[in-house]
Amino acid sequence: MTPRRLAALLAIALAALGPAAAWAATPARVGSKSFTESYVVAEIVAQVAEQVGEAPMERKLGLGGTGIAYGALASGEIDIYPEYTGTISHAILKDASVTTVDALRARLRPLGLTISDPLGFANTYALAVARDTAARLGLRTISDLARHPGLSAAFDAGFLERDDGWPGLRRHYGLQLARVIGMEHALTYQAVASGHVDVIDVFSTDGQLARFDLVVLEDDRHFFPDYAAVLLARASLPERLPRTWTALQQRLAGRIDNATMARLNAEVELDHRTFAQAAAAFLGDREAARPTRRRDLIGDVGKLTLEHLALVAVSLVVAVAIGLPLGLLAARHRVVGQVELMGIGVLQTIPALALLAFMIPLFGIGKLPALVALSLYALLPIVRNTYAGVTSLDRQLVDMAAVMRLGRWQRLAWIELPLASVTIMAGVKTAAVLTVGTATLAAFIGGGGYGTLIVSGLALNDVRMILAGAIPAALMALAIHVAFEALDRLVVPRPLHGARGTAR
Amino acid sequence: MLALRDVTKTFGARVAVDHVSLTVERGSTRVLLGSSGSGKSTILRLILGLLRPDGGQISVDGGMGYVVQEGALYPHLTARQNATLPARAEEWTAARMAARLDALAKLVGLEPALLDLYPGELSGGQRQRVGLARALMLDPPVLLLDEPLGALDPISRAELQTHLVGIFRELGKTVLLVTHDVREAFLFGSTITLLNNGRVVQEGTFEDLARRPAEPYVAEFLRAQAPPPNMTAYL
Ligand SMILES: Nc1ncnc2c1ncn2[C@@H]1O[C@H](COP(=O)(O)OP(=O)(O)OP(=O)(O)O)[C@@H](O)[C@H]1O
Ligand SMILES: [Mg+2]
Q1: Which of A113, A155, A460, B170 is paired with B155 by a 20 to 30 Å CA distance?
Q2: Going by C-beta distance under 8 Å and a sequence separation of 6 or more, which residues neighbour residue A196?
Q3: From the CB of B41, is ligand 1 less than 6 Å away?
Q4: Would you identify the CATH topology of the domain A125-216?
Q5: Among all residues of chain B, which has the CA nearest to that of A418?
Q6: Other C-beta atoms lying within 10 Å of the C-beta of residue A301
Q7: Pairing of strands A199-203, A152-155
Q8: How far apart (Å, rounded) are the C-alpha atoms in residues A339 and A335?
Q9: Which residues have a Cβ under 8 Å from the Cβ of B131 and sit 6 or more positions away?
């Protein structure tokens, strides 16, 4: 066979096999939000799909709240994740009148999305109080709260803001509480159990309700809509993987009731099983469900350290590469400088989590958007210190450079940067230490790092796991501080050590 | 030659330099005398092109060397690196720079061992000598000195004064030297220009100023720095 004919044959074979092979090999990506129930259901979805074996499964779990998880789905970063009908109509479609499954499907179709039939459980919002508070004040329904305006409440940020949460509830029942604070959901249980607050928002399938001995107040005037659990998926998924989709519908739709879900939640949160074990137990896989010590995440501290370090190092290098020239530009042109410093200042006021969420439509989920967000966040101290360092140089020293007719670059490299190096390095150091902390949020968009432990720990209310992420992060911040003291010795000219830039 | 014709500079409402005309002949030394705030430094900065005049013309033929009060040496560079910086900007070879610095160090009276120290490790007088060597590095025809000895103790000051007078004469530089010290003006200047509030009050030799003051201010200025008569008796 001539080489030419061989090539032609190969081309034909590839043309025939290529698309099919690529099609089959494209993994299905399942996502979840960062709370127990979402993790468990996503794990169930993944295991069912793996049993069908139509395509490899990729898990992208713990993607923060609705904004991030839905963002990931909309931008095609994931194919499917567990969601609630109420959330779809209120937070995604922003139309409370759409409630039935058929109506939701019709409205989701133009967006290239679809939903499964309801899984069976409904995770509605509810208000809960400690059992002794309920007994003492005779609280049974939400209406009863109106008689006790002196009570205080801690609500999850989502519940606090959403119109189908506290603002609407308050209007509906005409409630007045003495103090309402926002708090990460997983922490509200401790707050109510320790008596710091009286009322918290919970979910009807909460595994923690029994553990903290809480009483759910009856929604006697029917404010909370039904948050029936469904699987929200890209419309391409049923087309691409029809057998998988059918299996999910048959084995999950209508098969997980409130009690079952609460039990699965409790298995994870109270009995310290992994999400995968709880999911396997539900699917009747005895072998995989056998409890083991929960080592899977904490055992990963070494790997997470590398991930975290990489997040910090890469974003810092990028921030310096961009921030240094921006700072110099600001110092050269006063007007540009003011606009620029203001812009970067505004960037800094965006909450880190929101900034991460903004990255999803642009960069998807995972390391890239995390790196972009972290780099932007690290920019301010670097730009500001570069600007301050270069503009506050001794006037005579600057004049002298002009008199000597140094070129623009000579002036920069020989005079301005060395003299400003103390100040610039202080900015870089600040940025580095800040980034170690901020990088823990990367886990919310699948960026990895120590945040993975913190996010899961918060979801599981597992203090040990939270600390397993938080303590190494604090240690890393310390280590980076020390490392930078050493780097200072290298970067800052010797006579300027311990000086402030312009000493003569 | 160095010439200013009718030069004016204002900062907001403040007139720092008020219609000043001034000519320094090639190879001569001119002293700009005046009290604080009279506009001396501003005139040098205008000549150097660091400031733009509001009106009038300035002409200088040839490059300029600039020396200021505390030397304005770069703290992160050694004495050697500071002094050779203008040559480095001109991309001189290392050998040429070293040879030039050797000659200049001798001229300004700097021990070679001092050249590898940082400014923070030098005395005020030594720093001034480094600053002077830097100003002379490219051998500019014009030297502008802004109170170059202002920060020195009386002994090193007197010593450097005589030293400088010799150097200027030997090198044939066109020199404009700023001071508010009458003794220094007497030593350096064949011609003295006395400034007040940005205006030239009188121009002439020391004798002219002392014997024929153009305004009462001239006599007042000179008298203010004269040693008390009963003190001279002891010297
Ligand atoms: N960059 C500037 N901005 C505003 N005002 C200035 C500036 N530079 C100088 N001035 C003002 O101009 C006037 C002359 O200042 P200049 O520095 O020339 O005085 P000088 O004669 O050198 O005084 P000194 O003996 O104290 O050095 C002063 O009133 C000063 O406040
Ligand atoms: Mg001055």
Answers
A1: B170
A2: A152, A154
A3: yes
A4: D-Maltodextrin-Binding Protein; domain 2 (3.40.190)
A5: B76
A6: 16
A7: parallel
A8: 6
A9: B67, B68, B71, B72, B73, B82, B148
- Mean pLDDT computed over A125-135: 92
CATH of A22-122+227-289, one of 3.20.20.10, 3.40.190.10, 3.30.70.3270, 3.30.160.390: 3.40.190.10
Q: Where are the domains of chain A?
A: 22-122+227-289, 125-216, 297-503
Per-residue confidence (pLDDT) for residue A291, from 0 to 100: 63
Axis-axis angle for helices A367-391, A352-363 (nearest 10): 120
Mean pLDDT of A304-326: 95
Residues B48-55: what's their mean pLDDT? 95
* B180 pocket-lining for ligand 1 (C-beta < 6 Å): yes
Closest CA to B149 of B187, B117, B99, B107: B187
Quick one: tokens of A95? 């139309």
Q: Indicate left, alpha or beta for A284 from its phi (over 0: left) and psi (-120 to 50: alpha).
A: left
Q: Which helix (H) or strand (E) holds A231?
A: strand A229-234
Tell me which amino acid residue A246 is: T
Give the CA dihedral B188, B192, B197, B201, nearest 10 degrees: 160
Can you tell me the mean pLDDT for B53-66? Answer: 93
- pLDDT of A257: 87
Q: Which one of A397, A406, A418 has the shortest CB-CB distance to B72?
A: A397
Site to probe by mutation for ligand 1, drawn from B40, B177, B201, B221 as the one with most ligand atoms within 8 Å of Cβ, is B40
Asked whether residue A12 carries a pLDDT value surpassing 60, the answer given is no
Q: Are B175 and B164 in contact (CB under 8 A)?
A: no
Q: Which amino acid is at A488?
A: D
Q: How far apart are CA A233 and CA A30, in angstroms?
A: 9
User: What average pLDDT does range B96-104 have in this prediction?
Assistant: 95
Indicate the SS3 state at residue A285: coil
Report yes or no: A313 at the B interface, CB cutoff 8 Å.
no
Question: Residue B159: pLDDT band by 50, 70, 90 thresholds?
Answer: confident
Which superfamily is assigned to B1-63+141-225 in CATH?
P-loop containing nucleotide triphosphate hydrolases (3.40.50.300)
Architecture category of domain A297-503 in CATH: Orthogonal Bundle (1.10)
Asked which of A415-424, A461-470, B82-91 is least confident by mean pLDDT, the reply is A461-470
**Alpha helices, DSSP H only, in A139-274?**
142-145, 157-161, 166-173, 185-193, 208-211, 236-240, 242-252, 258-269
Amino acid at A305: T
Confidence (pLDDT) at A495: 82
Among chain B residues, CA nearest to A397: B72
Is there an atom of ligand 1 within 6 Å of B9 CB? no
CB contact under 8 A, A405 and B76: no
Asked whether this chain's domains A22-122+227-289 and A297-503 adopt the same fold, the reply is no
CA B85/CA B79 separation, integer angstroms? 10
How many Cβ atoms sit within 10 Å of the Cβ of residue A97? 7
Q: Which ligand is nearest to the CA of B39?
A: 1
Average pLDDT of the segment spanning A277-281: 92
Q: Are A95 and A107 a contacting pair, CB within 8 Å? A: yes
- Indicate the average pLDDT of chain B: 92
Q: Which two tokens stand for residue B5?
A: 């014709």
Q: Give A-chain residues touching B88 at CB under 8 angstroms.
A: 414
Dihedral angle sign, alpha carbons of residues B173, B176, B181, B185: positive
Q: How confident is the model at residue A448 (pLDDT cuts 50, 70, 90)?
A: confident
Start-to-end Cα distance in chain A:
81
Tens of pLDDT, residues A94-122: 888 888 999 999 999 999 999 999 999 98
Q: What is the ipTM of this complex?
A: 0.90
- B42 Cα nearest atom in ligand 1: 18
Q: Which atom of ligand 1 is nearest to the CA of B12?
A: 4
Q: Are B73 and B79 in contact (CB under 8 A)?
A: yes
